[in-house]
Fold this sequence. Notes:
The longest helix is centred in the C-terminal third of the chain and has 25 residues, at 323-347. This protein has 368 residues and is α+β, with helices and mostly antiparallel strands. The strands form 4 sheets. Strands 1, 2, 8, 9, 10, 11 and 19 form a 7-stranded mixed β-sheet that branches. It has a 7-stranded mixed β-sheet with strand order 6-5-14-15-16-13-17. The protein folds into 2 domains: 7-77 and 100-177 and 270-335, 3-Layer(bba) Sandwich (FAD/NAD(P)-binding domain); 181-267, D-Amino Acid Oxidase, Chain A, domain 2 (2-Layer Sandwich). The protein has helices at 17-28, 55-61, 64-67, 105-118, 166-170, 235-245, 249-253, 298-317, 323-347, 356-366; strands at residues 7-13, 33-37, 49-50, 73-75, 77-81, 88-91, 100-102, 123-125, 127-135, 138-145, 148-159, 176-177, 181-190, 198-203, 206-212, 217-225, 256-267, 271-272, 281-283, 289-290. It is built from 10 helices and 20 strands. Strand 5 and strand 6 form a beta hairpin.
Amino acid sequence: MVNDKQEYQxxxxxxxxxxxxxxxxxxxxxxxxxxxxxxxEPIRKFGEAIPPNAKPLLKKLxxxxxxxxxxxxxxxxxxxxxxxxxxxxxxxIKDIYGHGYLLDRLYFEKQLRQHLKNNGxxxxxxxxLKKLVRNTTGIEVAILNNRETSxxxxxxxxxxxxxxxxxxxxxxxxxxxLDTQFAISFKAKLLKPIExxxxxxxxxxxxxYVAPQQNNELTIMFFTLQELLxxxxxxxxFIRKELEKSxxxxxxxxVANLYFDTLKVIPSGTSRLDIPYGDDWIAVGDAAFSxxxxxxxGITSALASGYYAGHALxxxxxxxxxxxxxxxxxxxxAFQAYMEKLSNHYALENRWRDSxxxxxxxxxxxxx
Length: 368
């Protein structure tokens, strides 16, 4: 059985941070809701950093205590080689909110699900979205649990499915992709501890991101363009060569075992919906606006959009006419601020102005 209750005011597709933030907010506002999540158990996702300025949002959502768990580590700044050959350090020591956190991301995903359940939330795990049908009273959601098909009904549906924006796709709504940046990720195991900081380094064909994890593990990602990616069988060789070109990241990886058999290629460019809602739907997180990871918007943006979407839906269901417009205004303002920040940051790097990657960066930030 999926669930005895077949009708909700809001159905949320996707049980990641944005979906759970939406659900927590709706529940707090007294709005019946249900999350449909395809994965029976949480899976590890990329994005580990919670910056200091995210703390007020975490407190509003009632989840600050989750990241204070010992499995997550405090971190006090970033090291960056960007715009010059030197490695510069940015510390959070002067930040009014203190330090940030580096998450054990898989554990955080598990925490979020459990917190949702502990607070009366409904999440159907291992259940897939099959079909959406609009009708005069709302929207029908056909779901698949193993081989059993059930139908749920709701006034609104939330797309919290990440970059793929599955709900929007089913509704015939397309996102605007501003670039074709991809990330190549792999794991590493440190042979000796390093400072608990995020390291970033620009190179001719992209940029590197390295984040230390628990148990001396490293998350390593190289960001480049789709057109620069080799065929799959040459990917490990490509990464090794790009690693050799780095001035600082290569030194970090010399004290680690690198596992190239764990290579994954994932989209990581900027994309957006023209309007993040419709008559019976709303998009949150990466389904609405997908950010370049250099911006560090990531998890914070996902949680924030879920929080504001939850309030927008609750207000709309209370017949407040401008609720959705307010949500759109908040997201578009955030996106504009992001694009300005992105433009300023990429403008700092002038060492490879004629390279394919960096010329593309200039084109992306010009689309505003």
